[in-house]
Amino acid sequence: MALKFSEDLVSKNAPERLFKAGCVDIHNVVPTVLPQIFSGASLLEGDGGVGTVKIFNFHDGLPFKFIKEKVEELDTENYSCVYSVPEGGPLGTVFSSIIYRLKLVPSSDGGCVFTLTGEYTVIPGVEGAEIYINGDMKQNVGIFMAVDAFLTASPNAYA
């Protein structure tokens, strides 16, 4: 069973800055802006472009130890990216695949609208997948809000 959820969020930050910090360089940003969740993150393979694999490590006591994300598509001119989860998190126990699509659309006030879409394929027979999806989407919205707040408080970062 495949499930798809989307969330639109508004930012006063320019899409260029939010895309750099929240998509391209996210592995360097989240341990700084959310140190209570992430114990670290790094590139495992690649240079940040398509095919790059990033790992995000969580602190002990959280439901998962890590999650890996692979950049499947990266469009720096149109501020969009697609990444999959090849390992970690609820993959293999709840979901057989997870794909995220991120898109930033410039707004007339110099900010942007950020759209996050999560596509989840549930392993047959697994009950309660919606609980994981709801938590995952809330976590991703929280990450966006933390990165957005960091950029607002640091106007020269990713300028």
Automatic annotation (TrEMBL):
Pfam families, A to Z: Bet_v_1 (PF00407)
Q: Which InterPro entries match?
A: Bet_v_I/MLP (IPR000916), Bet_v_I_allergen (IPR024949), Plant_def-hormone_signal (IPR050279), START-like_dom_sf (IPR023393)
| GO MF entry, a single one | abscisic acid binding
Its domain of life?
A: Eukaryota
- Can you quote a single GO CC term? nucleus
Q: Enumerate the spans annotated as Bet v I/Major latex protein domain.
A: 4-121
Signal peptide as annotated in the record: none
UniProt GO BP: abscisic acid-activated signaling pathway; defense response
Hey, which family's this protein in? Belongs to the BetVI family.
* Name assigned to this protein: Bet v I/Major latex protein domain-containing protein
Species, as recorded: Dioscorea zingiberensis
